[in-house]
Amino acid sequence: MRPIAAFTVILAVIAVVTSEAAGLVAGQVERTGRVNSPGPDWTEAYHKNGLVIFTKDITEGRRVIAVSEVEVPPEAVFNVLVDFEHYREFMPYVKESEVLSRTGDNEMVTYARIAPPFISERDYPLKVRLTRRSAAGDGTPKDSAFKVEWIALPEAKPEVEGVVRIKLNEGSWLVEPVDDGRHTRLTYTLLTDPGGLIPDFVFNLSTTVAIPELFDAVRKRAVRATTGRN
């Protein structure tokens, strides 16, 4: 058993490794799809079907950086990521999701409760910020990049008896155009500690199963919204 961030990715949106780390990896994704390591102290934990995942265990928990490409435009992917009220319909393990409050169009407080296999339920209120910018070109929609960033806000909602409250959850989704805006480079970062004691096999599944499931759920939802197919 280990009290570290075994359940990193199923906390989808459920996350900041730091903005600098996300930018570093995003900048190292070549047109060939190859992704360079963020640094010598990071481990390439997964590389399959175009998804590359790096992990780094630290005292506070686990840091994760995951990068892949999605065959739809960035705005379609961004719309999926910010559809917080409907996460339970398509995000892995999410049982409840809602927006608790909004400050304008770009800041909000969200809440999600998850039921991961083998361990007790977890929940996490988050303070979320949305940004949109020109990636580098003429500022047209095909050139737009998006970012979803969040930090834990555990006091935003009373704790539920029997549900473990996640108190460290910082991360981001970076959504960038590739192929002249037809496709998306998607970078996910997370720093979290899910609390409690996590069995070793769940720790391993968090990387090899949960993160790929997360990316696949986002991809399928975005493709369906854009083309009507899975």
Automatic annotation (TrEMBL):
Coiled coil stretches, renumbered: none
PROSITE patterns found in the cross-reference section: START (PS50848)
GO molecular function: lipid binding
Taxonomy of the source species: Bacteria, Pseudomonadati, Pseudomonadota, Betaproteobacteria, Nitrosomonadales
Domain of life: Bacteria
Signal recorded as keyword: yes
InterPro entries with a match to the protein in the record: COQ10_START (IPR005031), START-like_dom_sf (IPR023393), START_lipid-bd_dom (IPR002913), START_lipid_transfer (IPR051213)
Keywords carried by this UniProt record: Signal
One term under GO cellular component: cytoplasm
Organism: Nitrosospira multiformis
Signal peptide positions (record): 1-21
Protein name per UniProt: Polyketide cyclase / dehydrase and lipid transport
A Pfam match: Polyketide_cyc
Family: Belongs to the ribosome association toxin RatA family.
Domain START: 40-227
